[in-house]
Amino acid sequence: MKFLGKLILWLLVALLLVIIGAWFLLQTHWGARQASAWLSNGTGWQVSFDEMEHDFSSPLHVQLRNVTFGREGKPATLVAKTVDIGFSTRQFSDPLHADEIVLNDGTLNLSPHSADLPFAADRLMLRNMAFNSPETGWALSAQRVTGGVSPWTPEAGNVLGKTAQIQMSAGSMTLNGVEASNVLIQGKIDQGEVTLSTLGADVARGTLTGNAKRSADGSWRVDNLQLNEIRLQSPASLAEFFAPLTTVPSLQIGRLDITDARLQGPDWAVTDLDLSLRNLTLSHGGWQSEDGTLSMNASEFIYGSLHLFDPILNAEFSPQGIALRQFSSRWEGGMVRTSGNWLRAGNALVLDDTAFAGLEYTLPANWKQLWMTPLPAWLQSLTLKKFSASRNLIIDVDPAFPWQITALDGYGGELQLVKNGSWGVWNGSATLNAAAATFNRIDVRRPSLKLNATASTVNITELSAFTERGILQATAAVSQLPQRQVNLSFSGRGVPLNILQAWGWPSLPISGDGNLQLTASGSVQADAPLKPTVNGQLSAVNMEKQQVAQIMRNGEVSPAPAAPAPSRHPIAMPHSPLLYGERDCFPAKLHSDNSLPFRERVGVRVLKPVRNTRLSVPI
């Protein structure tokens, strides 16, 4: 028995000496290389460190220097200047579960293929670390990270584990292309549900604070988020800028406040934006709300050709739709104001009171194409229950037919401008008038229009304007059927007879001022030319009593020569004590012993009373 006891004692002493020898060897460069090779052999992992240090003042802690760790054949998962590993009695039952792991001055690269790490710890501490996860869907990169995760039990697809408390700060961070600095995050992970109880950062020269929660299915609930003095420039279009909001299954916003923000993209911008949003949920390309509100104002808003100054918007959300309490803005040198409701049922926008005042608006070059383009699904109907216009200037610079309306006033009601996603005048009434207008370089004064639209027809009951010395009047009826049949009745009194040539009718064989009457019909369709469908009749007479009558069939006018002009052979007329020249008289040549005062107007000499003269009149 004594021998057996001595043998066991010597074996224990030998084992202790081996352990002590190995312990000292591991703290040398040679021992560290041998240990690295032994840990990497056959494990699928690549491990290396330069040396190991141990301090008997902390007997349960081991410090590795210049550590590299990662999957074999893959980029390193961990590169750190020092790794401090704390042990506990748990190592007897679970050798790869440390009490504490502290990573100092290095980089931690996490991706799906490296997430299933072979070890865990009650606490993972990061000190001045860089953190990258480019392939996890977050595109996260952070520098100067300090913080901790407790407990840390990484799994495949869950880098931080399924249950953990998190507290971290970062000097700088980039998340999905958005840069931030002085980042602070506190929260927890519970079975895939992430709660960020404290979130703060300096973003785009402004500040961000708030708290949020992410469900296991990827949905987010933002209880409170505040953005102050943001200055952000983005290379994305406005649709691309908001696209990330549509990628999540659901985004529930409890409170969002934006103060004095300036945002800019390639074709959009907003300056001095103040926004307050309450109780709104975005999901599957739509939204839901029980009692949400939106208040917004800015100094300037640009989207494509739309340029608003000092826009103000106040709205309320409900399951039925959006109550637009107020919208006003300075636009194109004037003012726009409206209020109304957007109804979810039918995707209809009904504006109760709309006003346009002092606009100086030039239509976009492609406004006809925009007019025919179907509108988005959320706007299938637009009705102006009441509208008014005052002192507006509208311009179209189309070189084929330029026009301009000056000092345009108007009013109307129940005017439906969109139906089934298409622009038009589908219902309601409107009255418009202006101080002056120009249509294809023809100037008119005091143009006026009255119309009444029903489901079947747009009736233009009055269309009139003054020329320099005459008046134009017309009535028309436009069918609401797809053929868009138009019937027009047009007349002019004391107007230049070539006025219709500028508006599409062929040149007349007579000229000067006169009277004309036109009746025509045609089919106005977007995908077919107008001219082949036009049929009509025109009659005209000038001040010289020359007449012409024309018939148009399928856009072609049948020839009709003018009435013959009078001959110019002089005849003798008796003396008259008093002779007056009328406007419609022929040019007269006067012979007298004394000179005769006279005046001319429109090529016709109007004669004053004369006595004892001999008159020769060419006829």
How would you sum up this structure in a few lines?
It is rod-shaped, with a radius of gyration of 44 Å.
List the helices and strands and how they pair.
Elements: H1 2-26, H2 29-40, E1 45-48, E2 51-54, E3 61-71, E4 78-86, E5 97-98, E6 100-109, E7 120-121, E8 124-133, E9 140-150, E10 163-175, E11 178-190, E12 193-203, E13 206-214, E14 220-228, E15 231-233, H3 238-247, E16 251-264, E17 268-283, E18 286-288, E19 293-297, E20 300-303, E21 306-318, E22 321-331, E23 334-343, E24 348-357, E25 360-362, H4 367-372, E26 381-396, E27 403-419, E28 422-433, E29 436-439, E30 442-453, E31 457-466, E32 471-479, E33 485-496, E34 513-523, E35 535-542, E36 547-553, E37 556-557, E38 570-572, E39 589-591, E40 598-601, E41 604-607, E42 614-618
Parallel strand pairs: 5-7, 6-8, 14-16, 15-16, 24-26, 25-26
Antiparallel strand pairs: 1-3, 2-3, 3-4, 4-6, 8-9, 9-10, 10-11, 11-12, 12-13, 13-14, 16-17, 17-18, 17-19, 17-20, 19-21, 20-21, 21-22, 22-23, 23-24, 26-27, 27-28, 27-29, 28-30, 29-30, 30-31, 31-32, 32-33, 33-34, 34-35, 35-36, 36-37, 38-42, 39-42, 40-41
Helix pairs in contact: 1-2
